[in-house]
Amino acid sequence: MRVFDYMRKYGHEEIVFCHDEASGLRAVIAIHDSTLGPPNGGTRRWVYKSEDEAIDDALRLSISQSYKQAAAGLNGGGAKGVIMVDSMEQNSEELYRAYGKFVESLAGRFITGEDVGTGDLEIRYMSMETNYVVGLPERRVGAPADYGNIMPTALGTLCGMKACAKKVYGSDSLKGKTVALQGLGKVGYLMVNLLRKEESKLIVTDIIDDLVKNVLGEDVTAVSPEEIYGMDCDIFCPCAMGAILNDDTIAQLKCRIVAGSANNQLKDDKHGDELHRRKIVYAPDVIINSGGAVDFLDAMTYGGEYSYSRSRASVEHIYDRVYQILERSERENIPTYKIATKIAEERINKYRAIHDLRPERSKAIRAGFGKT
């Protein structure tokens, strides 16, 4: 791929290629925009088909992270790390400590945490080499034991889903609603539990059979990954990888709402337009899945002091943000993804004019964060 052309088109500031022969580390860190504050985003470990695919994923996810934080009113920039592995069994201490050294070398230009393939064990390995990592349990003072690092994303997704239900069905109750849930990883598993409490009916799928077996019950029906798109349901909830809303899958949808936690759900902008044309309400991913980013930045914004109650209240505000976008979409007859993008870009551009006045403030935030 033509990396500099891509960076120029989408405004990326920096790409860092990380290699360590002894540990087998091959990683890419994409820093998109630091206008609003120190760039941050999770680190994904995945079996990529090629180097280009890994680079593309890092670049796309870093853009999403910028827009997610800008649209949510957060004071952070967008970035993302991806680690290329030959097998998902490859998650050794030496791999993540080598990666942590690269993160530390950026001196706060990149702050990271959990993502697909990177959990509590892996971030603990990283923390041995860098302070610029979030999500360690001992730093989550005041949070319930079951809140964890992923729960804010799941909770925010539930709040956004309820806002969509309010708009479409006149009530935000999900009782009796059929939800087709794609992906039963960290967030998807929690979504199953949350939706069970809402007394929803669930249709689930995952490419890993054991994950499906873990959630089966009288209220849960399993289907193959290929079948999930065509299920008769009220809500389609994508919680796996990106680009799943495309020419093939949208034509199969039999739902009135798409509301899930996956990043970059639209393969292309035209697919957001197609959902709008079909009158399928789409909760933009950069808004509905921003709960993790809200929680991620809580300590940074408040001088290194994490507050569960403050963070949870901010996450629950995703309900209002999603509903406002749906209202505006209906009023202006504009696809929801375009409104979310416009909100994010307007905020970034508003503060870009004073970007040069912020170095000392950003430095202070990074220093304080590093001590948490």
- CATH top level class name of the largest domain: Alpha Beta
- In CATH, the architecture of the largest domain is 3-Layer(aba) Sandwich
Shape annotation? globular
Low-confidence stretches: none
- Helix-strand sequence: HEEEEHEHHHEHEHEEHEHEHHHHHH
Query: Into which percentage range does the β-strand content fall?
Result: 5-15%
N- to C-terminal separation? 39 Å
Give your account of this protein's structure.
By secondary structure, the protein is of the alpha/beta class. It folds into 2 domains: 3-64 and 79-133, 3-Layer(aba) Sandwich (Rossmann fold), CATH 3.40.50; 151-291 and 317-346, 3-Layer(aba) Sandwich (Rossmann fold), CATH 3.40.50.720. It has 15 helices and 11 strands. The protein has helices at residues 3-10, 51-71, 93-105, 120-127, 151-169, 186-197, 209-213, 247-250, 269-277, 285-288, 291-301, 308-316, 318-332, 336-352, 359-370, and strands spanning 14-20, 25-33, 39-40, 43-46, 77-84, 178-182, 201-205, 220-222, 235-238, 257-258, 281-282. Strands 8-7-6-9-10-11 form a 6-stranded parallel beta sheet, sandwiched between helices. Strands 1, 2, 3, 4 and 5 form a 5-stranded mixed beta sheet that branches. α9 links the parallel β10 and β11.
